[in-house]
């Protein structure tokens, strides 16, 4: 991490140093222009503007230049010139240099390392001339740039070091430490999924992207723990059901044998109820097996057929009216000719669970209403609405209403009723949801197909 911060700081230092060098180069060349301008003015004091060789050399050496050319009235005049041989390697017009051209010229200077003479032109510092051109050894400019870099080196290194240290601790505080916490939390959760989650630590996360990751990680771990708990409950009930399943089936088989003996009883009520009793016993055995399968997380499989929904609901209501629904009024506005394409056993279990839940939501009695929203079966689906006059579904369980072992608000409830109903509805390619709930009651919407392959 520190190496990364140091590299970044060095890059930043380069970007800071480059403009400073460009500015230093421009100032150096302008100083030479000013010195050349001063030397040119000095020649005008001599007779006929002619100076002696000694004075010319002295003027050029004091200015650090090799020649001076002035422009005035559209003409150029060389007023001073060294007698040394000169090889011109570049012409620089400071009046035309802009932006990237200055950086390119700086690069050329470092690349040539002062190999010859350069010609530099700029506007005259005074109105005496239009422009001033000087010829100088580029080595002077190169050496001045190198000295400037060396003199600035300690300042640059101090800046880079301070910036690198600042970036290191900033990244460590803002990135490395939070990521380390996330890594440690993942490792601890992997080793012990049932660990106690630190809620306060999730709340005290920074308000940035990494903080959001920490909060989402906490939520994910919490949801996974709930899922683990649900699976443990499923495993527990599966073990319990497996233990009692054999004995329960034997008891139901005994009840079936007993029901067979009732066939000889010459009583019209017995003869009317006996077939329903036998079907109920068959369904009880099926439910026992399905509950065992549900506890083992096996998916329900539907065997759809054409079903007259009104007749099925009539059988459920009549069979249960002696016990479950004896204190309630059930109004069914289901058309007698309405048919579904679904598994008969599944439909019975779906509406038995919903009717039972509706009755339990009204401990003092009330009315349960069954209606169809679209009896014509638009889009090959029927929307059946079941409404009670209960107290509504508590907000605490509304989001987990169809999850097993979680959604029940009854003291002795398992939370399996709606979970099984949802699984059965979806097994028949339908859907179920809460349409509305409140102090005046709850409405469930069950959507089931009317034709195959929908």
Structural description of this entry:
By secondary structure, this protein is of the alpha+beta class. The protein has three domains: 2-162, no CATH class; 192-298, Helix Hairpins; 301-449, 2-Layer Sandwich (Heat Shock Protein 90), CATH 3.30.565.10. The protein has helices spanning 2-43, 53-63, 100-112, 138-191, 199-203, 209-261, 268-295, 309-320, 344-360, 395-398, 417-427, and strands at residues 67-72, 75-81, 88-93, 117-123, 131-137, 305-308, 328-332, 339-342, 366-372, 381-387, 431-438, 441-449. The strands form three sheets. Strands 2-1-5-4-3 form a five-stranded mixed beta sheet. The protein is rod-shaped, with a radius of gyration of 48 Å. The two termini are 59 Å apart.
Features:
5-stranded mixed sheet; Helix Hairpins; 12 strands; 3 domains; 11 helices; 454 residues; alpha+beta; Heat Shock Protein 90
């Amino acid at each position: 991490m520190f190496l990364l911060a140091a590299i970044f700081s060095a890059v930043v230092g380069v970007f800071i140093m480059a403009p400073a060098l460009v500015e230093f180069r421009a100032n150096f060349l302008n100083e030479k222009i000013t010195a050349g301008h001063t030397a040119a003015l000095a020649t005008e004091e001599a007779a006929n503007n002619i100076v002696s060789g000694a004075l010319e050399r002295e003027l050029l050496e004091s200015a650090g230049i090799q020649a001076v050319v002035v422009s005035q009235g559209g003409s150029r005049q060389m007023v001073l010139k060294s007698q040394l041989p000169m090889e011109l390697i570049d012409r620089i017009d400071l009046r035309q240099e802009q932006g990237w051209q200055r950086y390119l010229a700086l690069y050329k200077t470092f690349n040539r390392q002062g190999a010859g003479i350069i010609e530099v032109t700029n506007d005259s510092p005074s109105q005496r001339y239009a422009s001033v051109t000087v010829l100088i050894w580029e080595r002077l400019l190169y050496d001045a740039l190198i000295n400037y870099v060396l003199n600035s080196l300690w300042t640059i290194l101090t800046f880079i070091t301070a910036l690198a240290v600042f970036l290191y601790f900033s990244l460590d505080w803002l990135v490395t430490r939070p990521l380390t916490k996330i890594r440690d939390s993942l490792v601890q959760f992997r080793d012990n999924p049932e660990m106690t989650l630190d809620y306060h630590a999730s709340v005290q996360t920074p308000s940035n992207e990494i903080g959001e990751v920490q909060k989402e990680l906490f939520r994910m771990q919490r949801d996974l723990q709930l899922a683990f708990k649900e699976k443990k409950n499923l495993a527990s009930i599966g073990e319990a059901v497996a233990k009692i399943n054999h004995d329960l089936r034997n008891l139901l088989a005994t009840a079936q044998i007993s029901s067979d003996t009732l066939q000889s009883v010459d009583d019209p009520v017995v003869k009317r109820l006996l077939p329903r009793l036998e079907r109920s016993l068959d369904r009880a055995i099926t439910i026992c097996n399905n509950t065992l399968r549900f506890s083992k997380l096996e998916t329900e499989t539907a065997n759809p057929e054409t079903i007259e929904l009104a007749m099925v609901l009539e059988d459920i209501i009549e069979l249960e009216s002696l016990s479950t629904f004896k204190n309630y009024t059930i109004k069914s506005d289901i058309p007698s000719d309405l048919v579904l394409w679904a598994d008969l056993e599944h439909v019975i279990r779906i509406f038995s669970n919903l009717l039972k839940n509706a009755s339990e939501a009204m401990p003092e009695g009330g009315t349960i209403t069954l209606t169809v929203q679209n009896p014509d079966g638009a889009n090959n689906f029927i929307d059946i609405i079941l409404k009670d006059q209960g107290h509504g579904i508590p907000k605490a369980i509304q989001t987990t209403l169809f999850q097993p072992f979680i959604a029940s608000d009854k003291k002795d409830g398992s939370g399996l009723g709606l979970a099984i109903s949802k699984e059965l509805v979806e097994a028949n390619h339908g859907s179920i949801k809460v349409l509305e709930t409140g102090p005046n009651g709850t409405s469930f919407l069950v959507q089931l197909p009317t034709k195959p392959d929908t």
